[in-house]
Amino acid sequence: MPLLVTDYSWTQTESTVYISVPLKGAKAGKVDILSTDDYLKVHYPPYLFEAFLFEPVDDVRSSAKVGNGVAVISLPKRSNKEWEQLMITTDDKDKKKEIREKALLKYQKTLSSDSRSKAEKQQAEKKYALETMMKLEKEERDSIQKMKDTKREETTAELAAWQQRLKEEAVEEAQLNPQSQSDNQTEKRVKGHSGGGKVKLDQRDNSEAKSKKKQADLPAPRYAGNIQVSFTPRVFPTALRESRVPEEEEWLKKQAEARRAVNADVQELDDLKEEERNADWLKDKGDKCFVTGDYLGAVNAYNLAIRLNRKIPALYSNRAACHLKLRNLHKAIEDSSQALDLLTPPVAANAAARARASVRRGSAFCQLQLYAEGLQDYQAALKIDPSNEALQADTQRIRDIIQGTAAATEKQ
User: What confidence tier does 395 reach under pLDDT thresholds 50, 70, 90?
Assistant: First the structure.
């Protein structure tokens, strides 16, 4: 449970409210500030400062400076008048919860819009860079092609000039010595008739010798054969003689049913994108939202995934973790119990998931001061993972609380 900060200070002018919150040794990077028009939150674990503002402010122009052990938040007023007090005076928890949830939803939409605009800007920059690179590459290709064309034309012109020069020299030689050329041609024809047969025989002999040499160099063909190898089909890492086959087969059957299970009520989901109809994709989205601290967004993702597939225990267990963060303790107990019901029969493949669900339900019981029920869940988790030092310490702490309560009751 967070510790509420009460030693803050604030000042105001007709146009702006200034709030100073001491950070109590927290680093600047670990301070989470959320500001809307009627709500302000400064969170640096384990401390929390909340302000339900007396009048609306301009959250677009609001700013915060963190340093020297203090966070100073500047909130421009929407109306130029002095406030009677900083916060509204009401003990209506439902009203405060409504203001808080509206602020979180507005902050989530702002983050989503900023992320979308940032992605669009990056996409535009990538597109511009790609177009520029393609333009430069095209200019380079055109330049190279122009150089090739010029070189080809020059080579063609030189070849044509050389051929023309050879023709002219041949014509001049024929005109100067016609009789000598005729005798040379006759001599070539006679030599060709006398030596042609011998050349052909030599070529045939060489070809046959090369063919025989290649056949002699070839290795003998290998004998063909098949080797039959059989493996024992096993999904779990334990040896067959050490495992519990019926429980493991039942767990695998449940997993297969979970992969095939799809809610029949699909008409309400026609407006969703294709990836948003995938329970695994929604689970990954919820996990990412949880890591970034967007617990409401994670709950929404898990809710939609559960509507699509009610057989995946991780969806209920992860939603229970979100409810713990949002202090929805009874819902956390319900989701953890549902996850444990789906994580049956108990096998090695779901041991870690059963331990997590037990710890989350036990934590919710303890926060509701139901320590006996919480101790049972922590002991169940410790039985699964007996070497976990953190679990050992938490279980002992709950025992101490129960023993201390019992001792105090006996004294009374």
Answer: very high
Short-list 279, 311, 314, 315, CA closest to 299? 315
Q: What's the pTM?
A: 0.40
Q: Which of 143, 162, 140 is nearest to 151 (CA)?
A: 143
Smallest Cα–Cα separation from 296: which of 277, 280, 268, 319? 319
Type of residue numbered 13: T
The alpha carbon dihedral of 293, 299, 304, 308 has a sign of positive
Query: How far is the C-alpha of 408 from the C-alpha of 403, rounded, in Å?
Result: 9
Q: Is residue 161 part of a domain?
A: no
Is residue 405 situated within a structural domain?
A: yes
Per-residue pLDDT tens for 361-385? 999 999 999 999 999 999 999 999 9
With CA atoms as reference, report the closest residue to 12 among 64, 79, 58, 74: 74
pLDDT in tens, 1-25: 678 888 888 888 888 989 898 887 7
Owner of token pair 């007023």: 77
Q: Which of 89, 123, 149 is the last residue of a domain?
A: 89
Q: In total, how many domains does the chain have?
A: 2
